[in-house]
Amino acid sequence: MTGVNQNTIMSLGKRIGKACEKIMDEKMRNLSCSKIQMDEIWGFVGKKQRNLKIRDDRREVGDVWTFMSVDADSRMVPNYFIGKRSAYGANCFVADLAARLNSDRVQVSSDALSAYVEAVERGFGSEANYGQIVKTYSHTDLAEQRRYSPPEILTIKHTIISGNPDVKSISTSYVERQNLTMRMHMRRLTRLTNAFSKKMENFECAVALHFAYYNFVRMHKSLRMTPAMAGGVTDTIWSVADLIEAA
To answer: What is the H or E stretch that residue 83 is in?
Structure first.
């Protein structure tokens, strides 16, 4: 399409992606977010976890999860974390999120991942009102379905974990919509494709570029501004050229 060597394009993508990591880290500070939704999205690098061979596979190959937070008011993504779907990953993600907020009392919502309970307690202490959305599906073992259509949801329960959250505001709808946005914007996360990342570094750069573009460049239709503008991080709409210039 460009007449430029593929390696040159990939080199530019990694350079801009690493710079977008710094932009997200520097800009997403001292945020006044009062309602945070958290979720994680699955992907893989090199090959899926079930195809790993202990004798020859690198540690960074296999399933990879992207933890992300979304401010329910501005739709902004304050932070994200790439790693395994483990207690360690959840602790790192929530601790980083808590360090970026300046709100006195934050309402936090997540799915029923058990690692979030300890992570929120470690990260926020007693300064968060935390609730979970517990969904019961028609298939209990989702990992073994080997299918890509979502199972039928039988029940949805709002559970208070700590503090005094507003039960009506316990929701993960916005962050789940962000999952769809990621799969639509990032070919690497499209299911049933051969465009998956072959290296962790490439995956990390692509995710950073996506979130920087989403926060600062992409116009949100319902807000009629970018999420970063709605969140008070910037007062202008960035162009792609502005993003590259900042990078």
So the answer is: strand 80-83
